[in-house]
Design a protein that fits this description.
Strand order of the largest sheet of chain B: 5-6-7-3-8-9
Order of helices and strands of chain B: EHHEEHEEHHHEHEHEEH
Helix content of chain B: 25-40%
Radius of gyration of chain B: 21 Å
Shape of chain A: globular
Largest sheet of chain A: none
Distance between the termini of chain A: 23 Å
Number of helices of chain B: 9
Strand content of chain A: under 5%
Oligomer: heterodimer
Structural class of chain A: mainly alpha
Radius of gyration of chain A: 19 Å
Largest interface: A-B, 32 and 34 residues
Number of domains of chain A: 1
Strand content of chain B: 25-35%
Number of helices of chain A: 12
Number of strands of chain B: 9
């Protein structure tokens, strides 16, 4: 193995991209191990998701008196994307401390473990995706063929953001242990503030406030085209701007502190 | 390939973070006090010098033993050469494919089988696992664990675990081999087997550094010795001379 004695975020990224087989194998193995002793295996995730989203749908269509057929798809897809996003956000702070033993034993670049975890979360999301497809077949909404392009692109964009965010926050929270509980506390009410359980139109004149929330963009880029909602170019602009900002932040923090991680975890 | 290791005035500090130093609140209060007042964090922050002004020039063919008391920096030096630590000061230049046997078995998963753990540790090391069959065959032959290799590792005794750990590190022949002491593990028969295999790898690697307390073994395997004390290289040269100084220091 070539050893990278550097502080370069770019070289570490190149190493990880070159060794994509290794982290994807490890993530796949993590998943396999998780469900080894169960009968349904990874499909338990799907069952769990179907139950919670189904209950939510029933509840919301009763409370808000919404046309449940119309709302079902919106809520289901939003909830599934949200589940992916929240696991990224909550796993991020533990990413390096969780791999402490490995970081202290092998010279593998720390970001390798970020790819491993991000890919695991992506795999879990991909398990849920068929649920949306099943609903689409049942409901048959009008869908723009653009989705063939926007779906993989939006998933890729979230994966990239997941890597950049986890690496940055992983370093910060390895050094400052208050960061992790802070993030968990902040994320708890976030579901209510994101257009997942409700539609932006319900806000009336306050509709533009949804754009303060960064999660609106990432939910939007995946969901809008997927369920045949109206195309919103601003969610794409927003997601791309956030990605650029995350990249800059990652380059600064990772380049400065990459070599300190081993002492902090 | 002409592998080499050059260390020029290399030092390594370990920051010790305790309690409040890891808290963000403390950082904010510190900032609020504009650094004028001494905060608790300033008082608690400790730095331990792990390696102190190390100069080394190791060439192809050098088989070097590292001796010294516990806490003298033997493992730290190996981890620095392995690329796990980067120096606080000084310049480090290592040329050649490095393989390390330090903290063997770290990263093993209890619920995974013996075979799976072997594959996992190779993946984490960034080695190819394309030829899974031959990897598994080597593991089978070397560990002698037979059908146990198909069982989860949580069913293993500690001796069996160390066989597996050793096997996971033993496949490729590197240019530069870094070994931390571990020969005491396993039962006698296995020790002989592992010694033979390790000797083979040691003979074929062009540079070796071997941290050990076992002087007999060192004489057999190494050509030179480094005597470390308090993070410094106290002596670098003949094995017999290094041993003399070491014994004199602690007599």
């Amino acid at each position: 193995m070539s050893i990278l004695r550097n502080n370069s975020a770019i070289l570490d990224l190149v190493y990880s991209v070159k060794n994509y087989y290794s982290w994807s194998y490890l993530a796949y193995f993590d998943l396999k191990l998780k469900y080894r002793k169960t009968y349904l295996g990874p499909w338990w995730v799907v069952v769990g998701m179907a139950i919670s989203a189904g209950v939510l749908c029933l509840l919301w269509s009763t409370i808000f008196n919404l046309d449940w057929k119309n709302f079902l798809l919106y809520l289901f897809s939003g909830f599934i994307i949200w589940t992916w996003i929240i696991s990224i956000v909550n796993d991020g702070p533990e990413i390096f401390s969780g791999s402490a033993l490995l970081i202290k034993t092998y010279p593998t670049p720390p970001i390798f473990y970020v790819f491993r975890k991000s890919y695991l979360n992506l795999l879990l999301f991909l398990h849920h995706l068929p649920l949306i497809f099943i609903l689409l077949i049942i409901m048959q909404p009008e869908i723009n063929p653009r989705v063939i392009l926007t779906l993989p692109l939006s998933i890729f964009l979230i994966f990239i953001n997941s890597v950049l965010y986890s690496a940055t926050i992983g370093i910060i929270s390895a050094r400052y242990r208050d960061v992790e509980p802070t993030i968990k506390a902040l994320m708890a009410p976030m579901l209510l503030l994101t257009p997942v359980l409700w539609k932006p139109e319900m806000l009336g004149e306050y509709i533009n406030y949804i754009y303060i929330n960064p999660f609106t963009y990432f939910i939007g880029i995946v969901r809008n085209d997927l369920i045949g909602d109206k195309f919103d170019i601003y969610v794409w602009y927003g997601a791309i701007i956030i990605t650029i900002l995350q990249l800059l932040l990652f380059l600064i923090v990772y380049s400065a502190k990459r070599n300190r991680i081993v002492f902090w975890v | 390939m002409n592998s080499y290791i050059k260390l020029n005035n290399v030092s390594l500090d370990f920051p010790l973070y305790e309690g409040l130093d890891l808290s963000f609140r403390n950082k904010i209060t510190n900032f609020g006090k504009l650094g004028i007042m001494k905060t608790r964090s300033n008082l608690e922050r400790k730095i331990v010098r792990g390696l102190d002004s190390i100069n080394l020039d190791i060439k192809k063919g050098d088989k070097i033993a590292i001796i010294g008391p516990n806490g003298s920096g033997k493992t730290t030096l190996l981890k620095l050469l392995a690329g796990i630590y980067t120096p606080t000061d000084g310049k480090i230049d290592v040329f050649g494919k490095v393989s390390s046997m330090i903290d063997l078995g770290f990263g093993f998963v209890d619920d995974a089988t013996g075979y799976e753990n072997i594959i996992l540790s190779k993946v984490i090391r960034g080695e190819s696992i394309k030829d899974k069959k031959s990897i598994m065959q080597t593991a089978h032959d070397f560990t002698g664990l037979d059908e146990y290799l198909d069982l989860p590792m949580r069913t293993y005794s500690s001796g069996m675990k160390s066989r597996l750990a050793l096997a996971s590190a033993l496949f490729s022949i590197p240019d530069i081999l870094l070994i931390d002491e571990f020969f005491s593990t396993g039962d006698l028969e296995f020790s002989k087997k592992s010694r033979n295999k390790i000797t083979e790898i040691m003979d074929n690697s062009s540079i070796m550094l071997f941290a050990s307390h076992d002087l007999e073994l060192i004489k057999k395997l190494c050509t030179k010795a480094i005597y470390m004390k308090n993070g410094k290289i106290s002596y670098y040269g003949e094995i017999e001379k290094a041993r003399e100084i070491y014994e004199k220091d602690f007599s």
